[in-house]
Write a structure and sequence with these properties.
Chain lengths: 200, 200
């Protein structure tokens, strides 16, 4: 039995920012955006962040691509954002759900090798068993070999950007499938080229 | 009836990063930290983020102070973090809960005038009425005059850094009081000195 007032769209969104710690941060962001095909997602940028919406494949494809192309400059760059699915009433942009599942940016992203340190947290919102959902998905990242440790309020992933984004995507998609109306969010801070000593 | 396996501490934490978009980002962060008294919070920094834990007053006092002192440089600086309370089993650092409520950094922060644009989202985790809790706290920010609009997955606040942090603190603390074992998280991206046109 489902509430009639709730949206039933399974559109995925990510509200994120790319932070290049450099005087020429605008050029780095614009340069990365130019290399990414965003035609399969709804996208809007304001002065605080960018929001992309569409099928989960394309949301992860586009966010990884923008971050990877910014990070390949060698500058210390951080992706910080929140992925979301199932927010009640959230259906705007549903036309993008009919795009095919072929990822438009994977080929160009994949050739870039970027080591990242990541902290992420899953928030299953309308699920009384949420702590188990979180534990299960940390287990998935552990199986991938990307999970390095738990820290207060987050789990840490280290490795190649492609492996880490794959763990993030699987954790998020798995958690979103625990119920056909689940509302799940996931924060992720993905850092490349930090001058600080790795803490893993 | 309460589960025996859960922590009962009401310690508040924030895992956050300060991102100065400048070549001298390390100096800006270190400079800001030097101006902030962190003796009333547990604090640990790694290569991705910093975690502070203690009474809510001091967590908000310290995070606002670090951000404000970084932003007063005039550089484009963003605070991006997640505040948390009530995570089951989270009790480490409880000694900091016996500190007095006097804020150690408010006086020095208050003299700085910094205009900010903010996007925040509340996530009440173990509450079936979570959408109402969120709506109520967006209403609190509207009453403060800081709320400017809703965007996908977040609410926008604009104004003076002190007014905006007060709205964030009240929204978070109010949401955390909906139940004596509530588990609530709140993400916030607070941006100062952006070269982009304000979108409010
Ligand atoms: Ca965040």
């Amino acid at each position: 039995m489902k509430g009639l007032s709730c949206g039933t769209s399974r559109i995925v969104g990510c509200r994120f920012s790319i932070y290049p710690m450099a005087d020429n941060f605008v050029d780095i962001i614009i340069g990365a955006l130019k290399e990414v095909d965003t035609s399969k997602v709804w996208m809007k940028t304001d002065d605080v962040s960018t929001c992309v919406r569409g099928r989960s494949e394309h949301v992860f494809d586009v966010t990884k691509a923008i971050f990877t192309h910014a990070a390949k400059t060698g500058v210390h760059v951080v992706f910080n954002g929140t992925f979301s699915i199932g927010c009640p009433g959230d259906s705007e942009g549903d036309t993008y759900m009919s795009e095919s599942d072929e990822r438009l940016n994977e080929e160009a992203s994949r050739v870039e090798k970027v080591e990242v340190a990541t902290q992420f947290a899953l928030y299953p919102l309308n699920n009384p068993d949420y702590m188990q959902v979180i534990a299960d998905q940390v287990g998935v990242a552990a199986d991938h070999g990307t999970f390095t440790k738990g820290v207060h309020y987050a789990s840490r992933l280290d490795g190649d950007v492609h492996d880490v984004f794959q763990s993030l995507e699987e954790a998020f998609v798995n958690a979103s499938k625990t119920d056909d109306r689940s509302h799940v969010t996931m924060t992720a801070a993905v850092s490349a080229n930090s001058p600080s000593t790795k803490d893993n």
